[in-house]
Amino acid sequence: xxxxxxxxxxxxxxxxxxxxxxxxxxxxxxxxxxxxxxxxxxxxxxxxxxxxxxxxxxxxxxxxxxxxxxxxxxxxxxxxxxxxxxxxxxxxxxxxxxxxxxxxxxxxxxxxxxxxxxxxxxxxxxxxxxxxx
Length: 133
Ligand code: THU
Hints:
The chain is 25% helix and 23% strand. The chain is built from four helices and five strands; from the N terminus they run H-E-E-H-E-H-E-E-H. The protein has helices at 5-12, 52-62, 87-96, 117-120; strands at 24-30, 35-39, 70-77, 102-107, 112-116. Helix 3 (87-96) links the parallel strand 3 (70-77) and strand 4. The radius of gyration is 14 Å and the shape is globular. The protein binds tetrahydrodeoxyuridine (THU).
């Protein structure tokens, strides 16, 4: 298993970031070899912005793939060190990727940190473990 830095950089090229100018790219590798791209897409109503990681995962599900098809995700931005995913993306990655999926955090200088969905979000909120009706 290895990071897909070039694919994440290609995904990052597609970012729509007129407000922050902070481009983020995500590349999800699937077991069939396919790579799913995601980039951050901003909006003048700032709260409607959606991050690269979530766009990649929502695209994957929309295309009919399942969490079991996922091998890894690589995320890249022009940051001081490997980019750190926001809390919302950590929650979504935890639910839509298999337990302990490899997450490669990178920057455009090529610095890469290897982590996992569980390490990024210990004690995640999981609805089906609740005693709900
Ligand atoms: N952003 C991401 O795409 N992923 C993250 O995990 C952190 C933040 C985006 C959202 C916004 O477009 C820009 O980075 C600045 O916050």
